[in-house]
Amino acid sequence: MSPDPTGPVTPTVDHGSLALGRQLGQGGQGSVHQVLNKRINESAGGGWEVVYKEYSANVLPHLDEAALASSAALLGELSGADGRWLSEKTAWPAAVVQRQGRTCGFLMRAVPDRFQFSLRTLTGANGGPRRLANMEYLLNDDTYIAGIGLTVSDKDRLLLLADLAATLARLHRLGIAVGDLSPRNLLFSASPQPECFLIDCDAMRLRGATALPQAETPDWQVPAGEERATPTSDVYKLGLLAVRLFARNQTSTDPTALAATSPALGDLARASLDPDPARRPTPAAWAEQLTSAAATAPAKPARKRRRTPGAATPAAPPTRPATGRPHGTTPPAPKSPAAQAGGVLGALAAVVVLILLVVNNQHSLRTDTSGSTVGGSRQTARYTPHPLDTRTTPTPTRTRWETTPDPVRTTSAPPTPTDAIGTAHVGDCFDDKGTNGHADLSTTSCTSGAFKVVRINTATTDLDSCDNVPDSDRSVSSSRHDLVLCLSYQSPGGTAYHAGQGDCVFGAPGGSAWGKQACQTGNFKVLAAYRGTSDKSKCDPWPHYNYWRHFSVAADSRLDVLLCLSMNYPDDAGYATVKECLSKSGSTFTNVGSCNASNVYVTGRTSTPNAPAFCGHDGSTYWRSADYPAFGYTVCWRWR
Fold first, then answer.
1. Using the 8-state DSSP alphabet, how is residue 42 labeled?
2. What are phi and psi of 82, to 5 degrees?
3. Cα(359)–Cα(474) distance, rounded to whole angstroms?
4. Which distant-in-sequence residues (6+ apart) come within 8 Å of 435 by Cβ?
5. pTM listed for this prediction
6. Domain with CATH 1.10.510.10 in the chain
C-alpha cells in the first residue's frame, strides 16, 4: 500500500472570521471565549462545539508557535480512528487562530456535558450552574463526596483509573506526554461508564516539543532533577493519583489504602513512585491490574469511610463558593501566572456539547445508490480529516424508544418465554413493528433489515447509555426489566453502512453490498459519514472527495447514511495537478509540501491510463483500475 496522498497541514483560522460569544473566563495565560459559528468533525452527528483560547500579550513572547502548529496539525496526520479517539478523550487543539498573520490563540473542542455536574450545597440545593467534574472532588472522604451530589464507588474509582491508564498508554504511542497530569487537568464521568477527559492540552508535550514552558501543579511534581513531561513522569503522577484517590486525601503518598483494595495495585504504586524513572511500570500494566481489581470491587459507594491517618478533614462547601475549585480541599500554593493559567483556563473552557446520534424508529428495507465526481479543482487542496465547518447544520432529533410499561410496575418480575426484551442476549436479532416511539420487538433471524443486540446495559433505562457503543443505531429501554438494549441495524448494503471517518470501504460498481476493508490501493477512504441525509453536496468541501455512497432506509430517512469517499491511489501522483511539485524516488511520487524539497513537477495530466505519447518528451507515470476505469490517469512530469 502506498502512502496516503496527504501530509500534515495546520488548520488555521483568521480571528476576524470568528463569531465570539460570551467570555468564559480569564487567567494568567489569557482568556477563553465561546465560538458561535464554527464546529469540528461535522460528521459526528452535527459536529462538536469549540471554544477559543486567546493568549495574553505577556505570554506570546514565550509561545513556541511551531509546537502549537504541530499540535493542531496532529488530528490531520492521524488515522480516522485515532483522530476520533483523541477528540473524544481530550480537548486537543483543533486549529491555530491568527490575527494579521501572527498566532494569537487556538480553537479546541468544548468539554462534553457528561464531564460536568450540579454541585449540591449544604441546604440540598444545586449550587448554581453546572461545573466541571474535576478529579479534585474525589480526593476527599465519602461523606463529603456524597454531600455535594456525587455518587462514586470503589469500582468506579478503579475503572476511572483504568481508563486513564489506557488513555496514557495510547497517548504515549502517539508521541504525547501529558506533563502536568494532576486532578486540576483531569475530568471524570461515572455514567454511563467511568471515563476520563483531559484538558489543558496545549501544555502537553508532542514529540519532544511544547507550546509553552512546562509547569507542574504544586504537590504533583516529579522528583527534583527529573525531566518533566515524559511517559515515565506521567506514570509517576498516575501512581500519585491512584494512592490519593483511595486515601481520600489531597497530598498522601502512602499506598496503604490502595493496597487494602488490591495488594498488586499497592506494589504498582510503590514502583511508580520510584525515584528512578527506568524502574517504573507502564500504563498498560496499570490498566490490566486495575481492570482485574474492578471485577470484584464494591459497586455501591460506602456510606461512611474511615479516613486514612493524617488525612485532612474537608470543610463543608459554602452556599456561594468563592472559586471554581472543589470545596473542602486544601488550596495549593499559588503558581506564577504563566504556570497557573493552564488549569484555570481549562476549567473555564467548559461548554456543553451534545454529540447527537440519530436513532431509527421503524424497521424498513433499504436501497443503495452511489455516484462519483472525478477531477476538478478540489484535488488541489490538502486533506484534513477534521475540518472546521461554518455551515449551519440542523441538529438531528433523537427519537426515544420505550417499551410500553405494564399497568403495575413489576421490575423484579422474571421474564416469560415470550418476553423478547427480558430474554434477550447479545447477538440476538429482532424485528420492530412499533410505532409512535414505542418498540414492539419480535425475534427473527439475523438477516438484512433486522436489528442485532450489540450490548445490554442493565440497571438503567437511560437511552443515552448506548451513545458510544460501536455500530449502535437504536436504543430500546424496558422499565419492567430495568435495562436498555443497544441495537445495530443489519444493512443490506453491507458493513460499509457502519464505516466511519478514516475507514476504507469497497464494493463493485452498481453492486448492492459494500464492505469495510483494510486501506489499500484501489479502494476508498471514508472522508466523512453523515446520518439522516442524502445531500451529496455535503461532500463537496472535503479535499480529494471524488465518490459518494448513499444507503437509504425507505421507511425512515433518519437512518440514511451518506459516505463521502476518496480513491486510494498508489501514491501522490493520483491527486497531483499541473505545476504541482513532487518528490520522485524510484517509481514513487510523494508530495512533501515544498517545492524546494521536491525534484520534479507535474506538466500534464489525462484520464487515459498508460498514455506516454500524451506527455511528449516528459516522463510519465500511470495507474488504471479494472473496477473503476474512470479513476485511471497518466501524469506527466519533468525534472526540476
1. T
2. -65, -40
3. 5
4. 362
5. 0.51
6. 12-348
